[in-house]
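2024-03-11 09:14:02 DEBUG pipeline.ingest accepted 1 chain
2024-03-11 09:14:02 DEBUG pipeline.ingest length=149
2024-03-11 09:14:03 DEBUG pipeline.predict start
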Amino acid sequence: MNKKGIAIVIVLVFATALLGLAGVYIRNSREATPINSKILERVQMDFIGQGITQLALLKFKQLPSEFYYAYNFSVRDKRIAVVDPWEKYLLGPLKGDITEPFALSYSTKCRILGQTKYKVDSIEFEVIIEGNGMKRSIKKTINSTRVKN
């Protein structure tokens, strides 16, 4: 009979220990920050912005003279034309709307931080993305050297 009493005490001690561990686990799991869907959307917006920035850099590298012509005509000299070359340059993949993975709109801004005396320009591309009540801005700056061919 004495062994049966000790067995019950041992079982109760183990049950109490397991109950304490379960309580600690439940408390820790409640305090843990759940993954928010807004974080996922923000990361997706950042990746989309980085991709559009890469497209802007590629377009600049492939068409540098068109970039300088459009920028100088519309932005620097503030001339007006029926078809604005700067707006035309920024069309296509650099400005628009996306419906997947969620609805958002994006636009690209470019600034020349000129150092024309040395024939070196710093060009800043900024992609602004808006959607789902959030607004993200991705900036990329490159240095370019102008040489005559």
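2024-03-11 09:14:41 DEBUG pipeline.report The chain has four helices and four strands.
2024-03-11 09:14:41 DEBUG pipeline.predict end
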